Amino acid sequence: MSPIYLLCLLAASACMVLVDRRWRLFFWRDARRAAWVLVIGVALLLVADVVGIALGVFSRAPTWAMTGILLGPELPLEEPLFLAFLTYLTMNLVAIFERLPRRERAR
Q1: SS3 breakdown of the chain: % helix, strand, coil, rounded to 5?
Q2: Is residue 105 in some structural domain?
Q3: Which pTM was predicted?
């Protein structure tokens, strides 16, 4: 077992924070609203994961790159961090897209 995947998630998240800070996209525009969106987004995705696990749709494949720490049956420690990264990335992309001029969005 290894923390490589966890460290990669943390590094990618740190890069997202730098992008957000540089262009004031999500947290640097409205931190309170951003925190709510992030928490609600991660919570909904975790509920979907738990339902998928309960139905047998999702399962954890053992891999050398993950820590092996489980938060629940088939739910690795890295999963909530991955979901937070995806939510943060999505919100930054939405903010970037909203800033594009209308004619650029139409292309």
Answers
A1: 65, 5, 30
A2: no
A3: 0.91
